[in-house]
Amino acid sequence: MLILPKMPSLPHLVLGTSGHVDHGKTALVQALTGIDADRLAEEKRRGITIDLGFAHMELESIRIAFVDVPGHERFVHNMLAGISGLDAVLLVIAADEGVMPQTREHLHICRLLGVQRGLLVLTRCDKVDDPEMLDLCADEVRELVKDTFLAEAPLLRTSTKTREGLDELKNALLQIASETHRPNSDRPFRLDVDRSFGIKGFGTVVTGTVRSGNLKLEEEVWQWPLQHQRRIRSLQVHGIPVEQIWAGERAAINLSQISVEEIQRGDQLAAANSLLTSYLLDGELEALEDLSSPLCHRERVQLHLGSASVPARLIPLEEAQLAPGETGLVQLRLEQELSSRHGDRFLIRGRSPLRTLGGGTVLDAAPNKSRRLRQERAQRLRQLSQGSLSEQIQSATWLQGLRGTSLAELALRTPGSTKALQKEVAGLLSRQVLVQAGQPQALLFHPEHLERVRRFVQRQLDQQHQEFPEREGLPVAALQGKLQRIFPLTGVSEGLLKFFERQQLCSRRGEFYALPSHQAQQGKTAVTQLEALLALLKEGGFQPLRQTQLLEQAGLDERTALPLLKQAAFHKQLVRVAEDLWYLPPQLEHFREQLQQWFSTHETISVIECKKLLQTGRRHALELLEYADRQYWTRRIDNHRVPAKLLY
After folding, report:
1. What pTM, to 2 d.p., does this model score?
2. Residue 38 pLDDT > 80, yes or no?
3. Is 134 within a domain?
4. With the CA atoms of 424, 426, 432 and 435 taken in that order, what torsion angle do they form, in degrees rounded to the nearest 10?
5. Is residue 160 part of a domain?
6. Contacts of 313 (CB under 8 A, 6+ apart)
7. The total number of structural domains that make up the chain
């Protein structure tokens, strides 16, 4: 048995490089780590980074991983695939060239995707002889990053040739590592796949930065958006086998029974039921200030989320277009399914020409398509973006309409932790701000949408009362069946009807639902028919006619007579002892008295003894004793009955 060495629990940091093409990003990483991140033959031939490269180092007991991204504008899509999950970024500017177009674009991208810390690194300082030119370059960089997350970042002057400034850079990396905090460690495991390749004898290996949670060898993992379960053969961090990987680590996962073609960059590995999958995304988008024109309705864009890149149409939700520098609510209609959750950062780029247009945050990862929600959608999305947790829960539930949402799904539609959501939802339910229905999976509904269901139920009951005023109401099974077409999950329709009962919007009367104001109005014919049925049953004594014989003798069909019998049972004029056997309450009370008298002189009673006592048939005697068991008048022991607690 292979025993994997346990890696020491070292602090870890994931850094990404960014900057213009050929500004020395890869050389800087190699000078720090000793690893050449350019792995493709074409990269080595052309001297530029084309795809993502990876390197790592250990610095004073801190494990640092580098994601080296391409700087050329044609390969920005590759750069975007590697930037998710970064703790910090190194914005690299060549001192002999200064700020260039991709320097600006990479800075925009890092800011829009929520990177919050980093360092400014001037490279190739050995190529600039004039100190004033270096100062001018530094001033240009400071001007570029003012009012951004790098405004207060240290600016380091380096040279990979002379190794100038590398020690200072390492000290700055240690400082960033000490300030790094990972708020997603309590969330389910999630990793964006940025590489997929095969190793002979091992099979398919995928790599990526663990965005949240942790994963053990024996745990299950799912491939998204396909939602296929995958089995793990082994885990590695920086080439070392481990038993568990954690949020913030660069990890390699060896998967079994899957080809390289079946999982590619853009896929995600995550826990079951931890993401939402849809062809739609609602979010808040910031358009870049330097755009030459506004973002228009149905404009074709390329959406980048995690390591995925998907063509989409942009739909502004508040105005017809989004002007440069503005932030607004949008819907993205995707050409491929995408898996995400509330709070994910995304970026959009133009398709022709290739340029970054803006970026933002996912507010609703799987929007409801109902047109009824259009008018208030923007207002509710605003609350999802800026409201309190209570307002976010209410808005997320409202946006699902009659689909409802579960507590587990709310964790994907709001920023709250499971514990905080449970506490807040309990309060909202107690105040009836939300309604819960269904078992075993309870769904939450917003009362505004249940108003439509209430009107539907009342229409059904009102129609029943008008067509059949003599009946007690609409059968429970019939009304639940109508609601199950809208709410197919088990227990939801029953739960909603109970809610309407508590609100006194309808009332349950035995096997019927009715409006509270409804009173069954029997016509003269129905009264006469019921009296005939009751008389025949009374005449039978302890051996009344079976239901089929009863209806034949009364000259009634089942459709006419059965509602009369059930209505009489509801009004306690009859008791249904068996499926086809009815008794009048006085008959059953007389039976009880007979039992009391019998047990005054006997300890037990059998079916044969009951038959003789009541002067009835064996089947009638058996069904009466079974009824007595259900009423706790008797208790069965083998083939005999003894007195029970409610007999006297």
Report:
1. 0.76
2. no
3. yes
4. 100
5. yes
6. 298, 299, 300, 301, 332, 333
7. 6
